[in-house]
Amino acid sequence: MRIGHGYDAHRLVENRPLILGGVKIQYDRGLLGHSDADVLTHAVMDSILGALALEDIGAHFPDSDPQYKNANSIVLLEKVYGLMEAAGYQLGNLDATLIAQEPKLKPYLIQMKENLAGACHTRPENVSIKATTEEKMGFTGSGEGIAAHCVCLLIKSE
């Protein structure tokens, strides 16, 4: 077994879509980044890459590479799944937390869970996603950005 942790954060800006866990969220701002800036999916990818000791998403999908401009992070997660499979592992489970004062994310969590499970070739019950605020403290609490943490357990394939 191997355990990994991932973290990501991006600034909220106008004129960008807000995408989390592969779901387009109705909101007046979106996350700034080279790709779609999906902090949840980025944290998931970094947790898996960390468990495999394969650096981070920046090493695999650099923001200096134009092919990743506005990239769909779920597609990138599928590539990370390929690395996990090639290393002889499968996902045991992952547990992620989104940190955002706004918007309210509860209505979108089930679809996020299904999207992440699909990209990782696992059942949705192996994926946990929670959303919390920081009671108006820090950059997420003030509405400047959104962050996500994820831990995962990988199991050696038989």
From TrEMBL:
<dbReference type="Pfam" id="PF02542">
    <property type="entry name" value="YgbB"/>
</dbReference>
<comment type="subunit">
    <text>Homotrimer.</text>
</comment>
<feature type="binding site">
    <location>
        <position position="139"/>
    </location>
    <ligand>
        <name>4-CDP-2-C-methyl-D-erythritol 2-phosphate</name>
    </ligand>
</feature>
<feature type="site" description="Transition state stabilizer">
    <location>
        <position position="34"/>
    </location>
</feature>
<feature type="binding site">
    <location>
        <begin position="34"/>
        <end position="35"/>
    </location>
    <ligand>
        <name>4-CDP-2-C-methyl-D-erythritol 2-phosphate</name>
    </ligand>
</feature>
<protein>
    <recommendedName>
        <fullName>2-C-methyl-D-erythritol 2,4-cyclodiphosphate synthase</fullName>
        <ecNumber>4.6.1.12</ecNumber>
    </recommendedName>
</protein>
<dbReference type="GO" id="GO:0016114">
    <property type="term" value="P:terpenoid biosynthetic process"/>
</dbReference>
<comment type="similarity">
    <text>Belongs to the IspF family.</text>
</comment>
<dbReference type="GO" id="GO:0008685">
    <property type="term" value="F:2-C-methyl-D-erythritol 2,4-cyclodiphosphate synthase activity"/>
</dbReference>
<comment type="pathway">
    <text>Isoprenoid biosynthesis; isopentenyl diphosphate biosynthesis via DXP pathway; isopentenyl diphosphate from 1-deoxy-D-xylulose 5-phosphate: step 4/6.</text>
</comment>
<feature type="binding site">
    <location>
        <begin position="56"/>
        <end position="58"/>
    </location>
    <ligand>
        <name>4-CDP-2-C-methyl-D-erythritol 2-phosphate</name>
    </ligand>
</feature>
<feature type="domain" description="2-C-methyl-D-erythritol 2,4-cyclodiphosphate synthase">
    <location>
        <begin position="1"/>
        <end position="154"/>
    </location>
</feature>
<dbReference type="InterPro" id="IPR020555">
    <property type="entry name" value="MECDP_synthase_CS"/>
</dbReference>
<feature type="binding site">
    <location>
        <position position="10"/>
    </location>
    <ligand>
        <name>a divalent metal cation</name>
    </ligand>
</feature>
<dbReference type="GO" id="GO:0046872">
    <property type="term" value="F:metal ion binding"/>
</dbReference>
<feature type="site" description="Transition state stabilizer">
    <location>
        <position position="133"/>
    </location>
</feature>
<dbReference type="GO" id="GO:0019288">
    <property type="term" value="P:isopentenyl diphosphate biosynthetic process, methylerythritol 4-phosphate pathway"/>
</dbReference>
<keyword id="KW-0456">Lyase</keyword>
<keyword id="KW-0479">Metal-binding</keyword>
<comment type="function">
    <text>Involved in the biosynthesis of isopentenyl diphosphate (IPP) and dimethylallyl diphosphate (DMAPP), two major building blocks of isoprenoid compounds. Catalyzes the conversion of 4-diphosphocytidyl-2-C-methyl-D-erythritol 2-phosphate (CDP-ME2P) to 2-C-methyl-D-erythritol 2,4-cyclodiphosphate (ME-CPP) with a corresponding release of cytidine 5-monophosphate (CMP).</text>
</comment>
<dbReference type="InterPro" id="IPR003526">
    <property type="entry name" value="MECDP_synthase"/>
</dbReference>
<feature type="binding site">
    <location>
        <begin position="61"/>
        <end position="65"/>
    </location>
    <ligand>
        <name>4-CDP-2-C-methyl-D-erythritol 2-phosphate</name>
    </ligand>
</feature>
<keyword id="KW-0414">Isoprene biosynthesis</keyword>
<feature type="binding site">
    <location>
        <begin position="132"/>
        <end position="135"/>
    </location>
    <ligand>
        <name>4-CDP-2-C-methyl-D-erythritol 2-phosphate</name>
    </ligand>
</feature>
<feature type="binding site">
    <location>
        <position position="8"/>
    </location>
    <ligand>
        <name>a divalent metal cation</name>
    </ligand>
</feature>
<feature type="binding site">
    <location>
        <begin position="8"/>
        <end position="10"/>
    </location>
    <ligand>
        <name>4-CDP-2-C-methyl-D-erythritol 2-phosphate</name>
    </ligand>
</feature>
<feature type="binding site">
    <location>
        <position position="42"/>
    </location>
    <ligand>
        <name>a divalent metal cation</name>
    </ligand>
</feature>
<dbReference type="InterPro" id="IPR036571">
    <property type="entry name" value="MECDP_synthase_sf"/>
</dbReference>
